[in-house]
Amino acid sequence: MKTQSTILTIAFVLISVFTIAQNKPAVKSETIKVWGNCGMCKSHIEKAAKEAGATTAAWNKDTKILTVKYDLTKTDNQKIQKSVAGAGYDTKDFVGNDEAYKNLDECCQYDRKTATKKQ
Ligand SMILES: [Cu+2]
Fold first, then answer.
1. Mean pLDDT by 10 residues, the chain (119 residues)
2. Contact 59/110 with Cβ under 8 angstroms?
3. Number of other residues whose CB lies within 10 A of the CB of residue 108
4. Does residue 104 contact residue 88 with C-beta atoms inside 8 Å?
C-alpha cells in the first residue's frame, strides 16, 4: 500500500513538472487598424511594431490591418500602437505623429484618419 502511494506521488510530480515545462510564454495575436498607403508604409509600420516588442508584424495595405503577435509579459497593444503612431501612422486608438508624417515620402502621404473623420 505504501509503495503504491509512493508511485502515485512520483507520477503526480512527473506530470506537474512536464506541464510546467510545456508552459510557453503568453503570446497574444491581435489585429489593429493602421492607416497607410503603400509597400513602404508596410515596412515602416512593421518595423515600428517590432521596435515596440511585437515578435511578428504584418500589415496589409489593402485592408489596412496590422496583424501582430507579442509576448504579453513584454509589451502590449497600446505600446505597439504608440510606436506605430510615432512613425507617422494613424492607428485605431492614436493619431500619427505630425512631424514624422511630414517626413514620409510622397507616396506614403496617406489620407489621415483625422481628415476622414471631419466631413
Ligand atoms: Cu508608403
1. 73 71 82 98 98 98 98 97 98 97 96 67
2. no
3. 18
4. yes
How many beta carbons lie within 10 A of that of residue 57, not counting itself?
A: 23
Check residue 77 and give its pLDDT: 98
Question: Could you give the residue ranges of the DSSP H alpha helices within the chain?
Answer: 2-22, 39-51, 77-86, 98-102, 113-117
- Cα separation, 24 vs 68, whole angstroms: 18
What pLDDT does 119 receive? 45
Q: How far does residue 107's CA lie from ligand 1's centre (Å)? A: 5
For residue 96, give the C-alpha cell.
500619427
The rounded Å distance from CA 39 to ligand 1 centre is 6
pTM: 0.78
